Amino acid sequence: MRTINNINNEQYLGKQLVDNLFNHKGVFVLPAKTLLTGDHIRLISQHRIMLQPQDVVQVDSATFYQIAVDDCTAAMESIFEQLRYNKSKRLPMIELRNEVIPFIQQVSEKNDFFGILAALQPKDDYTYRHNVAVGILSTLLGKWLKLKPEELGMLTIAATLHDIGKIMIPSEILTKAGPLDEEEMALMRKHTTYGYELIRDTVGTNHQQALVALQHHERMDGSGYPFGVLGHRITDFSKIVAVTDIFHAMTSERFYRPAAPLYEVLRQMEDNAFGKLDPYICSVFINKLMQSMLGNDVELTDGRVGKIILILAHDPLRPLVNIEEDFIDLSRHRDLGIVRVIPQ
C-alpha cells in the first residue's frame, strides 16, 4: 500500500484485508481479515492510505452485496436523521454522492438480480433500505432500457431519494402495525410533495429528479396521487421508479405483513402493465427479471425445489422447471407458481 493525495479506495468495498493495516507512521488501522465496509474505507482514506490489489482478497458475491447494501442503508438512515433535525432542510448531497451512490452503482453492475434482491430484504430498517433498493433496482432497469450514462446517473440519485419526503411524516405513522386510517393516509401521501420541495430546493439536484419524488405514486390511468395525473404527464424517470418501488415493496417482509410470493407479485405487475404502470417499462423489467432466473433453483407453491431451464416466449411468467427426473411446464400447471428464487 502507499499514501497519496487523491485517494479513491471505494473499489475495495466488500473485499477482505490480507494483513494487518498500518499507516505510514506505523499506527495500527485495521486487523487482517477485515471485510471492508464504507466506514472502513473512509477510515483508511483518512489515514492517507491507498490500497493496492495485493492488499485485499475477493469475498463471495452474497457477502459483497450484503456489506454494500447494509452500508448504504446506514448512510441513508444518517441522511434521513440529519434532515429530520436540520432546520434548513437541505439534502447533504456530498454525503449521498460519496457514501451511497458509488456503492449503489457498484452493486448494480453485477448481473445477479436475485442475489442482489436477497441483500435488499429489510431487517428492521425498511424505510431506509427501501430507498437503497429502489436506487439499485431502478439503476438496473435504466440499464435494461439503455439510458445514456448521464441519464442513468441522474436516475440513480432520483430513485434513491424518491421517498425522502417521509422525513416529514411522523414515525408512528411510518411504523404503524396495520392499515392507515383515512386521516393518516392523507398525511402519508404528503411525502410526495414534501420530497419534491426538498429536492427542488437543494443545490446539486434538478427538476427532473424532484419530479420523481412527486410522481412515483402517480399511475398511467390517473388513479394515483398526489394529483391523479394521466400517463402522458408523468416523466419517464417517475415511471421507472414506480415499477421498482412496487416490486420491492411487495417482495419485502414487513412487520405487519409477509412478503408476497414472487409469482403473485409478477402477475399483479403484469396485470397493471396496461393501466397503472407503463406497459413497455414494466414488460422490460419482467422479461429481464425472468431471464435472470435461468439456471437458478426456485421454490414452487407446493414446496418442491427445481431449476429453471427455459423461459417460454408465450408465457414468460411460467417457465419450464426441472425437478429431479421431471420437467414441469408451469404454463400447463396453472395451480403452481414460483414462491421465491434461491440465490446461487
From TrEMBL:
HD-GYP domain ranges (all copies): 105-301
Residue stretches in coiled coil: none
Signal peptide range in chain numbering: none
Source domain of life: Bacteria
SUPFAM superfamilies linked: HD-domain/PDEase-like
InterPro entries: HD/PDEase_dom, HD_GYP_dom
Pfam families: HD_5
PANTHER family: CYCLIC DI-GMP PHOSPHODIESTERASE PA4108, CYCLIC DI-GMP PHOSPHODIESTERASE PA4108-RELATED
Entry protein name: HD-GYP domain-containing protein
Species: Paenibacillus auburnensis
